[in-house]
Every structure is written in structure tokens, then in C-alpha cells.
């Protein structure tokens, strides 16, 4: 209910790549130990497919980032509106609370997003999300605003971070861009080394088989 076609397709791709990686590793080890050329060739092919898939996924994310951001905005917006610690999807809500707590943000665009929450509306804005709090509070659920019980409030007086999580995530990505690129480059290099090694083993096995053929 809270997902989108793009995110679902991305998840399916990651699951498929993970399963292919496990199978590929098994076939590569089996081919290297038993010197089976066809398995090593299959290992090389799988590595090449995975590398191409990773590059294609990166290009799709780069060129479709606006679409993905809009879909994420809708998903998070619906999650905030329906957020209910007692009856909602606990895993999804805990994940969003974790994001807000770790990035020190509140809502997708800002703390005002939480004013649309059904429970907070019924309490005249006297409740606010604990995971947004600037003070040490429980990491999930709602906290009560200090003040007269018969008054009303707004997100402007909540003791919460005013920065939206969209800006917080973008800032985190910019701050850690070097690490992310380094990890991606390291994975690509390892895959290329695996491809080179598998080809070398195939050539060695072919050479050994050729020398074992009796000459007439």
C-alpha cells in the first residue's frame, strides 16, 4: 500500500542480483577447484551481467531521480498521515522514526508535514512525533507538548527539528559522496578482477588440455 512500481521493480532487481551473485560464487568456486571451463565461462558471463546491471541501475537512478523523489514524497506523506503507534505498520513506522532520529529531521519537507497526521489533528497539535524531538525522548510514538490541555498549538512551537528529511538525506549523500563512490568503485574493480581471473583460468585449462593431446 505504501510502495510504488519503481521501488518495487528496484527491489526485485536487487533480489535477482543477490540470488545471481550467490549462484555465481558457487559456480566460480566449483569451476576453479575442478578446472571446469564451462563453469568458469559461466562465472565470467554472470559477473559481466551483474556489472552491466549495476551500471544500468546507476544510470536509471540518475536520470529518473526526479520521478523517484516524487514517488518517495507521496509514500512518506501517506505514512505520516496514517502514522499510528498502536494500529499502524510497526516495521515501516519504526524505520521512518529511525530515519528522522539519525538524520535529525522531521517530516519530508519539514515539521509541518506532521500537522496532517490524523491523531495529532484530533489532539489539537498538542502531540508531536518523538523521533523529531531536539531533546532526548523515546525514539517512536508521540510525545505530549507541555501546556494547557484545552489550548491549541502548531508545529512552530514543537521542540522538534524543522529541517525536512528530503534535505537531510540530500545533505547526507553530499557529505558521504566520496565514500559511496569509493565503495562502488571498489566493488566494480573486484568484479573486473574476477572476470580477468576467470578468463585466465580458462586459458590455462585450455593450454593444459592442448598439451595433453597425444601428437600423431
Automatic annotation (TrEMBL):
Family matches, as Pfam families: Tetraspanin
Taxonomy, superkingdom: Eukaryota
Spans through the membrane: 12-33, 40-63, 179-202
Membrane topology type: Multi-pass membrane protein
Gene3D superfamilies: Tetraspanin
Coiled-coil segments on the chain, per record: none
GO cellular component terms listed in the entry, alphabetical order: plasma membrane
Record key words, sorted: Membrane, Transmembrane, Transmembrane helix
Cross-referenced PANTHER family: CD82 ANTIGEN, TETRASPANIN
Family: Belongs to the tetraspanin (TM4SF) family.
Protein's recorded name: Tetraspanin
Gene: Cd82_0
Amino acid at each position: 500500500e505504501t510502495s510504488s512500481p519503481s521501488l518495487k521493480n528496484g527491489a526485485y532487481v536487487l533480489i535477482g542480483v543477490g540470488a545471481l551473485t550467490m549462484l555465481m560464487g558457487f559456480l566460480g568456486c566449483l569451476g576453479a577447484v575442478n578446472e571446469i571451463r564451462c563453469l568458469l565461462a559461466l562465472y565470467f558471463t554472470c559477473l559481466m551481467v551483474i556489472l552491466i546491471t549495476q551500471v544500468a541501475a546507476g544510470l536509471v537512478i540518475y536520470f529518473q531521480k526526479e520521478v523517484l523523489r516524487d514517488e518517495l514524497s507521496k509514500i512518506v506523506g501517506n505514512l505520516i498521515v496514517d502514522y499510528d503507534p498502536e494500529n499502524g505498520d510497526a516495521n515501516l513506522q519504526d524505520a521512518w522514526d529511525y530515519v528522522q532520529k539519525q538524520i535529525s529531521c522531521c517530516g519530508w519537507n519539514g515539521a509541518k508535514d506532521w500537522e496532517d497526521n490524523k491523531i495529532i489533528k484530533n489532539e489539537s497539535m498538542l502531540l508531536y512525533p518523538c523521533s523529531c524531538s531536539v531533546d532526548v525522548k523515546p525514539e517512536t510514538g508521540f510525545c505530549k507538548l507541555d501546556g494547557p490541555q484545552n489550548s491549541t498549538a502548531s508545529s512552530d512551537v514543537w521542540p522538534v527539528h524543522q529541517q525536512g528529511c528530503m534535505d537531510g538525506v540530500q545533505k547526507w549523500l553530499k557529505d558521504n559522496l566520496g565514500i559511496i563512490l569509493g565503495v562502488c568503485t571498489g566493488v566494480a574493480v573486484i568484479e573486473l578482477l574476477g572476470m580477468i581471473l576467470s578468463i585466465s583460468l580458462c586459458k590455462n585449462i585450455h593450454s593444459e588440455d592442448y598439451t595433453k593431446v597425444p601428437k600423431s
